[in-house]
Design brief:
Helices cover 19% and strands 31% of the residues. It is an alpha+beta fold. Strands 1, 2, 3, 4, 5, 6 and 7 form a seven-stranded antiparallel beta sheet that branches. 30% of the residues are buried.
């Protein structure tokens, strides 16, 4: 898979500054879906939210979209052994949701990663990393479903995928349960 380049965002870093067991997960350049399937025999995708909506400000800037632009937002839980292990958030502009990306609106329980890495024409940008705080929108989305320890930071990574000049931004938030086999405080 080739790389695609985009401008940096000061809040997202090209170098990972963390020394923990989470580091190999964050730095994985291959399919996260494939890595999760190796780790968990019972892997699944649980859709959380799919709809037209406004991208976060940093996403809009990265994708170079006007302020009024609506994007297709897909959020899913990547599950392992019945527990959410990763929260995946994908954003694609209406103008890019055509041609080869058109089927993204109907992914349902199918893993996006499997589709992206199966197509040799898809180019992936560099990974960028960020420690999310409770004030970040993606942290808030995760905490709506999961009980997190007070002020427990979450690490996330994102990269831009390109297919025939159409861009898709994928952000993955790594949950504390990824490193444990215990219940992650799933809210019912």
């Amino acid at each position: 898979m080739q790389r695609v380049h985009y401008r940096n965002d000061a809040r997202w870093h090209a170098k990972l500054i963390i020394r923990s067991a989470l580091r190999p997960w964050l730095q994985e350049r291959g399919s996260l879906t494939a890595k999760l399937k190796q780790q968990y025999a019972d892997f699944s995708v649980q859709p959380y939210h799919e709809a037209w909506g406004k991208p976060h400000v940093d996403e809009r800037q990265l994708l170079r979209l006007p302020a009024y632009t609506q994007t297709w937002v897909r959020e899913v839980w990547l599950m392992g052994d019945g527990q959410p292990r990763v929260f995946a958030h994908s954003v694609i502009a209406r103008k890019d949701l055509r041609g080869p990306w058109y089927s993204l609106r109907k992914m349902g329980r199918l893993p996006l990663g499997a589709a992206l890495f199966a197509n040799p024409k898809v180019k992936r940008g560099a990974l960028h990393f960020r420690k999310l705080t409770p004030a970040h929108a993606l942290y808030k989305a995760v905490s709506k479903k999961l009980t997190l320890k007070t002020n427990h930071p979450l690490w996330a990574r994102r990269s831009l995928f390109c297919l025939q000049r159409n861009h898709l931004l994928v952000t993955e938030v790594f949950l504390p349960s990824l490193l444990t086999n215990t219940d992650n405080g799933l809210k019912e």
